[in-house]
Amino acid sequence: MKETTIITISNEETKEMFFTTNHCQNHDKGQSFVSCTYRLPMRVVPREGVEDGFIDTREKLIKVFYSDFNIIKNPNPKFQA
Q1: 33-62 average pLDDT score
Q2: Cβ contact 1:59 at 8 Å
Q3: How many CB atoms lie within 10 A of CB 80?
Q4: 0.85 cut: is pTM over it?
Q5: CA-CA distance, 28 to 74, in Å (whole number)?
Q6: Which of 4, 24, 41, 78 allows an S-S link to 56, with CB 3.0 to 4.6 Å?
């Protein structure tokens, strides 16, 4: 299976996140927004929605790490992912 990189910028306090193509993107959203890069596929403890514990899509990544987040539009169209 081909490896995929997914980069997010999220704020745990406000439960907002967006996808980006640049881990170091300037976004003017404040210091509470932090970047995280994921390499798929990846394994996690099996759970509802990912019963086999295998994350290989953006949708499964959202279910595991961002299910309670509001996905917002990237504020810089240059880095839309």
Answers
A1: 96
A2: no
A3: 11
A4: yes
A5: 11
A6: 41
